[in-house]
Amino acid sequence: MRSVVADLWDEWSSYPAEDEETNSQEAAGLIAGLRFREKKLKKEKPDGQKSEKAAVSGGSTRLWALHRLLKLWKTSRWARELNLAACVRFPPGMKGRVSLDLPVGLYEEISAVTGRETWDWVRGVWGSCGALYAPRTGYYLVMRAAGESARRLVQILRRARISHSLRSTGRDAPEWGTRELWGTRELILRNQQNIVTFLSKLGLTGVSLSMENKAVLRAVRNQANRESNCDTANIRKSLKAAEEQMELVLALQRDGRLEALPERFRELAELRLRHPDATLSDLGQLLSPPVTKSTVKYRWGRLMEILGSPGKPPSASPTPPLKRGL
User: Fold this and answer.
1) Other C-beta atoms lying within 10 Å of the C-beta of residue 66
2) Model confidence over 162-189: pLDDT tens digits?
3) Which of 43, 68, 276, 280 is most deeply packed, by most CB within 10 A?
4) What is the pLDDT of residues 255-278, one digit of tens each?
5) Do residues 99 and 84 lie in contact, with contact meaning Cβ atoms separated by under 8 Å?
């Protein structure tokens, strides 16, 4: 059975590439989620001289994220300015970190991208620095962004009524937790319903529905387990009570006191002998006339109280007479 996490990345990777603006927003988000640093690129001129060109370099171990970026780039607003495939350097054997070098000017232009389709940008950031974990205790979602990307991400989440405050009390407690980690701001979302809402805003509705279905199934299974455990406990309790009642009736029979019991108590004791595994409710329905479970329980309590439980030493005082009635 496939995991929700695998389904999530499959849906993200195959999300439809739409118009130029949408693809540009998501591509910008993917780049924003990567951590870049400045470097000098050496380039050889036609005359054989070497020159240095300012650039920024970043990378990721997520091959699927770089593959998505290359796909979006072909229909983005920057496709005519730069052949992005020439700027990507894959590790030997396609294992390890994929590097991406961009000219400083183009990188600054991409970093300044703003627009109305902000969730397309967030979808890109999620692809490069987000993760969903599914331990046994429940789902939680993590995003790690740095610098200006982290600040902008927080602004978008706040406008979407998804706060990230570290401390809050009362009914407006935050959905997002936050901490500084390895030079990044880590945003953590633990509530499953909020995770489903967040993924739906990214357009990943398939995995959102899958998570909701799994949550319903888990809730039904947990309820069934609780009811089963409760039924098991009730059965054990009923069997223990029946065993104690059988011991009392057998002791009365050995002592010859069973026939001396008042009719209502004797009838109940004889029914227990004939039905050792019956519940109190069943015994009550077998009596003539039928009585309720609470009445049967009361009568057994009176018998045990007056006659004493089996195994105890007999009292020196004479057995007090049984009262008529209940």
Assistant:
1) 22
2) 544 434 434 444 567 777 878 788 888 8
3) 68
4) 888 888 888 888 888 888 888 878
5) no
Sequence-ordered list of residues with C-beta below 8 angstroms from that of 217, at least 6 positions apart, any chain:
none
Name the H helices within 145-191: 147-159
CA distance 189 to 236: 43
Q: What H or E segment, with its residue span, contains residue 237?
A: helix 205-255
Please report the sign of the dihedral spanned by the C-alpha atoms of residue 263, residue 306, residue 311, residue 316: negative
Rounded-to-integer distance, Cα 235 and Cα 114, Å: 65
Given a contact cutoff of 8 angstroms between Cβ atoms, the answer to whether 145 and 53 are in contact is no
By DSSP bridging, strand 130-133 and strand 176-181 are unpaired
Question: Reading across the β-sheet that carries 140-145, which strands appear in turn?
Answer: 130-133, 140-145, 184-189, 176-181
CB 206 within 8 A of CB 7: yes
C-alpha angle with apex 134: 128 to 135, nearest 5 degrees? 135
Could you tell me the two tokens for 291? 């009585």
One-character DSSP codes across 239-296: HHHHHHHHHHHHHHHHHT-STTS-HHHHHHHHHHHH-TT--HHHHHHHSSS---HHHH
Token code pair at residue 195 = 């995770």
